[in-house]
């Protein structure tokens, strides 16, 4: 007999969530609160790339998919977690080649998943351009990562490598409790139309024997 284990790999999104250094922090403004008011109502104010979120190709290419147009097959399906927690600086091709890539949805687990995220770390583990090219050649269609970006200093070199090919990107995953194995991913962005990115709730489904 098997049971399904659900692993939440989403980042908490609140006023303390670490965002890109040029972005304002999320503001969850209480408009109405019981018992003074009839109900509880909160106004949400944050960027489209806050917390766990999807980067759509439209982020850099105005004629490509916006977040609401990304096919569900890119956001739901069999995926593979690669454990790269042995990498201390930059993920290279050599580091990636130590793992057999068998799926087209890949999540990269690094030391970033163990960062308490009290402040932005400009030296977070990143991915090399050569590593990005390698993943493209391996046929990856959706790539998830455990920090605000795959690259440092606000550069878009890797984003262009991926998004020019309409490869879906998932940022700010929390993969601390995920092992190197295959799972079923569900990561659906809020259906805001016509935009470059959107917050998402991401979970992994794991089949376990009782």
Furnish the topology, listing elements before pairings:
Elements lengths: L1 E7 L18 E6 L8 E5 L7 E3 L20 E8 L6 E2 L1 H5 L7 E5 L16 E2 L1 H9 L4 E3 L12 H7 L4 E4 L10 E8 L7 E13 L1
Parallel strand pairs: 5-7, 6-8, 7-9, 9-10
Antiparallel strand pairs: 1-12, 2-3, 4-10, 4-12, 5-11, 11-12
Helix pairs in contact: 2-3
Characteristic key phrases:
single chain, mainly beta, Glucose Oxidase, domain 1, 7-stranded mixed barrel, two-stranded antiparallel sheet, 3 helices
Q: Explain this structure to me?
A:
- The chain has 210 residues and is mainly beta.
- The protein has one domain (2-12, 47-209): 3-Layer(bba) Sandwich (Glucose Oxidase, domain 1).
- The chain has three helices and twelve strands.
- A hairpin with an 8-residue loop joins strand 2 (27-32) and strand 3 (41-45).
- Helix 2 (129-137) runs parallel beside helix 3.
- The radius of gyration is 17 Å and the shape is globular.
Report the span from N to C terminus. 6 Å
In terms of per-residue confidence, which ranges show pLDDT below 50 for 5 or more consecutive residues?
none
For the sheet with most strands, the description reads:
7 strands, mixed, barrel
By CATH, the topology is Glucose Oxidase, domain 1
Which of globular, elongated, flat, extended, rod-shaped describes the shape? globular
CATH class: Alpha Beta
Q: What is the second-level CATH architecture?
A: 3-Layer(bba) Sandwich
Report the total helices: 3
| Average pLDDT over all residues | 96
Spatial strand sequence of the major β-sheet: 4-10-9-7-5-11-12
Say what oligomer this is: single chain
Q: H/E element string?
A: EEEEEEHEEHEHEEE
Helix content: 10-25%
Number of domains: 1
CATH superfamily, please?
Answer: Putative cyclase
User: What is the gyration radius calculated from CA atoms?
Assistant: 17 Å
